[in-house]
Amino acid sequence: MLFYFEEEGKMLVYKRLSRFTVWMMVMVMGIGMMATTFSMGAPDAAAERQSVTFQPTRYAVMNKAIEKIPTTVEAWVKLKPAVNTRQIIIGNYKDGTQNSWSLELTSDNRLRYWEEYVDAQGVKRNMPNLYVTGVDVATNEWMLLSVVRDVTNKAILFYKNGVKVFERTGYTTIAPEQTPSTLPMLVGTDYRKSMWLNGQIAEIRTWDDLRTPAEIAQYAAADITGSESGLSHAWRLSDAAGIYPTTTFMDMARTNPVNLTAEGFLTYPYPPSGASFANSSVQYAAKNRLSSTPRTFEARVKLPKDLQGNRGGVIAGNFMDMGYYNYDMAFVNFEVTANGEPRLYWKKSGVVQDMVFTGVDLRQDRWMHVALAFDDAANEIRCYLDGELMSVRMNADFQPEIPAQALKIGGDYRANNTQYFKGGIADVRVWSTVRSKDEIAAHLQTEPVNPAGLLGSWKFDAPVNGIYADKSSHSNDITAFADWIEPNIAKGDHSLVFLPDTQFLASTYPNAFYNLTNWIKANKQEYNIQAVMSLGDIVDTHTSTTQWQVAQNAMNTLDGVVPYMMMPGNHDMRMSLTRETINYNKYFPYDKFSQLSYFGGAYKMGYMDNVYYYVTAGSKKYMIFSIAFAPTADILRWMNEKIAANPDKNVIITTHSYLYWNGEQSNANTPATSSKYISDAKNADEIWNDVASRHKNVVLVVSGHIGYPDIAKRVDTGVHGNRVHQMLADAQGMDLNGGLGMLMMLTFHKDSNKVDVNWYSTEKNKLFRERNQFSLDLNVVQP
After folding, report:
1. What is the mean pLDDT of residues 51-70?
2. Domain assignments of the chain as residue spans, ordered by start
3. What is the pLDDT, as a whole number, of residue 29?
4. In this predicted structure, what is the pLDDT of residue 33?
5. Candidates 3.30.70.100, 2.60.120.200, 3.40.50.1820, 2.170.270.10; CATH matching 275-481
6. Inter-axis angle of helices 545-556 and 510-522, to 10 degrees?
7. Per the database record, which ranges form the LamG-like jellyroll fold domain (predicted)?
8. Residue 749: CB partners within 8 Å, gap ≥ 6?
9. Disulfide check for 296: which of 15, 135, 372, 435 has CB 3.0–4.6 Å away?
10. Are residues 452 and 395 in contact, defined by beta-carbon separation less than 8 angstroms?
11. Sheet order of strands, 610-617 included
């Protein structure tokens, strides 16, 4: 009899409990204790697990046979839905002459257990058609599958996550206890190697005893240690360090261990290592643009699993958002989304194709090979993981082109590298061809050696002298990249400065405009600056007197300091056949400039639209043309006349519109070319053919108009065999969201044709990108 005490007034009174009340209390306490027990450290069946992904040709084999057909076998698995082919989870069937058993999925995705043995009389017996019906196991979710062989009762019991879901009795052909399992077991297939598992396995266990429902439930909710009574073997499978032909999974059993060795998994000619890009300051870029349109991107990457809410980042790409660039520039990013999904993003002329491969997750904390093949003929993009086709996106009707800038690795050109890759990259390959499954798989095993279509191949193990060498035939090496670098500006005999489209300085950042010309004034002696040339678009709005006043005030700083030459762009005039430049000529008047010692002459007396100047620097004599936007045929005739009269001068032609962002001379079909604004305008190809190529003393043509962060350049040979360098320098896009005060400086050297080029921000006191600091071999005319 049990009692309890109850406070009544100030006295403790004991009362008797009924048997029913006692029973209820015990039950409640017991249930509470059980709940507490199973909640402490219990693994979540739905949680992700360290595991190995099996697919065709991938399997693992035991180094020896286990002792007998196990009484209980269990496996933590994650099985893909609707595979619709027969799949072996674990099995050792070969040719029907051995004792064998298997746990598998049928072609209609049902769970099946099968065994076959030779009895004491030499008769072969098997257990046919043991299918689990009404239980869905191919759900792409983690689950513990348990199969119990009750030999005494001739029954097979199936459990899912510790709960019995199916039972079949009456199997008189069930193998007796202690029936040997003749051959070593295979995981992911059997000895026929024609039926492959498409799924993941985290753990396999075999038991010598008949596991009870309570015992199965216990270890569905708790991890084993390897010392459990009745446990004969157990293997935990993980690909966290990568899976290779030598990878071995050790048996957790204390006695007679049997180990598993991986077969058919990837092998690389180098170890699984690469460069970490998990920091926005780690930036690398190729030296040059790709030579052809890319159609297949490959990379071996490693991303951590805990990237919740953060993009995996850009593996390779050239997307940029610096200013506005609405021309026909092509951008491409090969990247990973916040859900770990591979993504191929193309953009050109405002048209976007964004292909994300949902359901594919690269956040596995292990090295994985991912390939995206863009088949524009079939209008589809195919995604491969470790050489296997995982997903296909249809309706990919975008027409790809050569990306506008050199590819960056581990990021793109957006300011501050915000979408940097959040993990490691071991290698990247880019192809102009649409790689097939077999081609991708073939080059998983070996480094490709100059095969057709390989645009670039880089391995990020250890750079040599800071260079990741391109293993393709293009020698497009990758080096460290930074937008802004220390201002190691070249020095020489003298320098010429070019001011690239100052329109947003005049309209929005006047102090940056003033600082720009003040820097030139302060450094005139340091760099022996002999001339400063505007490339047009002095202001953004030609009717704004405020902007013109800013420009005039800024340029007046150079009066009496250094010769400077102004030139109207399309923003500085009214777009019509009359080409009205009223404010330009008001704020930079002919009366002022025509009186200067270096002034040469004008196409039209009284107007500063098309003029030329003479500058002597050291032993070199220059004739510098400032040609307004959209010159006519008669202006070109006038230029020819003046150049022919000055054969001893090195002619530099500055004009607002000439070179396009891709280094091509603009023509009638080029976006934003002169003739698209004014019908009788001559484009760059005509300026070249009719003027620049015809004179052996034309050494340089420089233009603006096309906003582009890098200096574009080309060199052509004139009719006299002379080389003529042509350059584009335009900072308007860079200045749009913050005036940078950019200038391009050309530094000349005494008794040399070498000219050093620097692209410099007076606001940041930095040079912009290493690729914009280079040298030219100018075809200088000597006196």
Report:
1. 92
2. 3-39, 52-263, 275-481, 485-777
3. 38
4. 37
5. 2.60.120.200
6. 20
7. 296-438
8. 492, 493, 755, 756
9. 435
10. no
11. 599-602, 610-617, 620-627, 650-655, 698-703, 723-730, 708-717
Query: At 369, is the secondary structure helix, strand, or coil?
Result: strand
The string of pLDDT tens digits covering residues 597-638 is: 999 999 999 999 999 999 999 889 999 999 999 999 999 999
Q: Is the pTM of this model over 0.85?
A: no
Same fold for the pair 52-263 and 275-481:
yes
Q: Return the SS3 of 770.
A: helix
Give start and end residues of each alpha helix (H) in 14-140.
19-39
**CATH annotation of 52-263:** 2.60.120.200
For 662, which DSSP code?
T
User: Would you say domain 485-777 falls under CATH 3.60.21.10?
Assistant: yes
Amino acid sitting at position 226: G
3-class DSSP state of 69: coil
Determine phi and psi for 365, rounding to 5 degrees.
60, 35
Cα separation, 444 vs 128, whole angstroms? 41
Q: Is 66 helix (H, G, I), strand (E, B) or coil?
A: coil
Place of tokens 């595979």: 83
Output b/e per residue, 596-635; b: 16+ Cβ within 10 A. Answer: eebbbebbeeebbbbbbbbbebeebbbbbbbbbbbbbeeb
